[in-house]
Structures are given as structure tokens and as C-alpha cells.
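Question (not urgent): is this output format expected?
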Amino acid sequence: MEEVELQLRLNPEMEEFFSSSRNEHFFVKNLETIQGDERDVIFLSVGFGFDEAKRLSKNFGPLNQEGGERRLNVLISRARERCVVFVNFRASDLDIEPNAPFGLRALKTFLDYAENRNLQSLVQSSEDTDSPFEDSVYSFLRSNGYEVRKQVGCAQFRIDLAVVDPNSPGKYLMAIECDGAKYHSSPVARDRDRLRDQILRGLDWKIHRIWSTDWYRSRRDSEAKLLTALKSARESNAQNASGTMEAEKNEHESHMLDQDAPVADSYQQAPVDNGISVDDYKTCTDLPFTNHGDLHVQNPKKLALNVIRVVEAEGPIHFDEMVKRIRSLWGLRRTGDRIINALRKSVDVAKTQGEIKARGAFLWPRDLKTPKVRKRNEEPRPDIELICPEEIKEAVRLVLKSQFSTVPDELSVATSRLLGFQATRDDTNRKIQEVISEMIQSGELEEMPNGLIHFK
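Got this back:
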């Protein structure tokens, strides 16, 4: 708090954001006192970590106690949009045992996700393997000095054997998949695991498969290939770690050189880079009929010309957005009931003339069948209730054409980014998920047993 007070003295223009009379003012709280408060962005500082001797204690105060995971859950769920974590160690530095306190295991999982977007299961690895074949591979790895954990993960993403990285005990070096004869002869199983492997590799898992027939018929060959793969993985990890340390050193040196330079405000919700380009939303900039006195007393047929112009420029457009555009171009600041009623009559005239069509609250150009996906920036600001379901569907199709298949939440986020949302709030996600469900029910999309969604 002393540092905050110092910065406020240096930047007095920020004081209004700290006033207790302000709705959702800035606060500093600890793990025990934050319950009940929410903010769009939460800065989370982990007060435990490496000491001056580079020792990392596994004592994290309340998290080590019973119910520590609930306190952590309360803390990290206070952020509506973004949680920024400050900590002097990585998740991989925190080497914890399977029987460590649940709160400590939850912290490691959270830090791993914050750093790598890698959400691991908190289910403990099993002590049992599925077959004598796996037992044999496990014993071989142990005899060569590797620490191995069995049945890591859950459901269809459970890994037979996971080899711990000896240079970073909090990470896995490689996943070993032990496939029996039935698997080898089953094209369905191979196709299913091809997609599963793709997902795991996307999460930075290195995977090595061993066939049971090869293991027993060409044992020395299989053992040599396994050790070579592990050696290659260790060398790759060591190079990556060296590169990361060098990059961090350069970044630190650069920061030290530039510490007196003005700092630009770089805050924004991190975008999803899906490699898809869409046009920006373009608003109507002029009206054929305007500035002839009070809007609500104008001839509905004359006002219908304005409605048609806005719908042709921005359709499909929500009725409320159309009203806002005409009001603004007319030079008005507010919209009353009389103006809304006048424009409703004008919409009816335009529909009767066959110049526009209506689908629910959305107004469409006469000949438009399929809407373009448009990215909303400052004007209009993105509002999911003001975007028609047909445009949301088109955005979903663009994402799936690019990614082929993805899980529902990621599909929703990528879709929202195409439409201009910098953050995907609950109401936005809910609306997009409703559209995705409709596409699944209509048979256009299919949700596979592993949760991925793709074109049917």
C-alpha cells in the first residue's frame, strides 16, 4: 500500500479511481478478505516464492491448509475478464507430490494455465497400469533412471506412462503410449487417437508410441528407439530453456535501459489469432431526408427513405441500432417514445414497399440472403444482442473452416473476436453457444464424443 500511495502522489489524476464513493473503486485485499468483490481485471501477487538463496519453500500459508483450494478458487474467480499474475517462479519450479495438499496442487495447475494456457486435471495419477505390457515398459524406464507416473490425466486424454523431466521435475518430458495388438488392427481406434494426439501435441506434449508386438518381438530395437526419443526430448527441452532464459535476460536489460522512457498504455484483452480476416463494420454516414424540423412529426414515407438507406448500408441491423443511427444523423442526442413510434411506422412503410424485410427485431436489405461477418470496433461497440443469429452463424463457419474442429468454449471465443469483442463475457458466450447448439440440432455441425465440434 505504501507503493500505491507513493504512485498516487506522483500521479494525482488517478485519485478518482481510488475513491470509496466510486462504484467498483481500486482496492488491495488478501486471500482472506476478497470474497464478495469482483472487478473486470484483478492483479494477483503471489507473496511466496524463491528466496535470496533461490530456495522455493512449499509452504504457501492458507493454501496448505484444509480447504485451501476453496480460498484459491474464490480469489481467481474475482476477475470477470482478466487475471494478471505476478510471481517469481514458474509452475514447473513447484515440484509437488501427488499427495500434497489439494490447495497446493490447485495453485500449480492455475499457474501452469496462466503461463501456458495448459489446463491439467487435478486427478492424481493411478498406481496401476492397464496391462503387463505397460508394466514391462514402466520397469525398463525406471531401470534407466527415469521417474515415471502411470495413467496421467483423465477420460479420453489419459496417458499410459508419463516420464518426468529430470531437469524440471514439475514438467513431463514425454508421454508413452502402449498400444496392444487389438489397437493395431482397429482403424477406428487409430483414427480416434490421431485426433487425440493432435490435441495433446498442441498442448506441447511429446508422444512416443510403442506397439506390443514390436516390444516383444524386437525388444532391443524398441528399447533403443525409446531411449533415443527421450534423449532427443531432453536436448530439445534444454535448448528451449536456454533460449527462454536468454530472451528474459535481453528483455530485462532492455527494460533497464529504457526505464526512464514514457510507458504507453498497452492494456487490452489478448486477442485470439485465428488467421481470419473480416471487414470492419461500416456505418451509414448520410441520410436522404433530414433536418426538416422535429423527427417525430415527419411524413412516414419520407422517413422510410432514411430507414432504407441505413438498412442498405448496415443490414442486417437491429431496430434499436437503426433508431440510434437515424437519431444521430438527424442531430439528436436522445430518443423518446415519439421518435421510436415514428420510425416503427416508417419501417412498416419500407416493408410494405418491399424495400426491406424484417426477421424478428432485425432489418435486412431486400435482396440480401447471407450476411457478411463484420468486426465492430468503436462505432458501433459490439453488443451480442444487436447482432443477428445469421451473422453469428457465418462467424462460426469461418472459424471452423480455419480450425477444422475445436472445443465449444474456444469456438465461442474465436467467433466473438471476429465480431469485434475484445473480451467474451457470459452473455456473449451464452448467445454464441445457443447459435452453435442450433447448428448442431439442424445437422450442420456435430459434437464428437471427445467434445470437439466440426462440420458434419
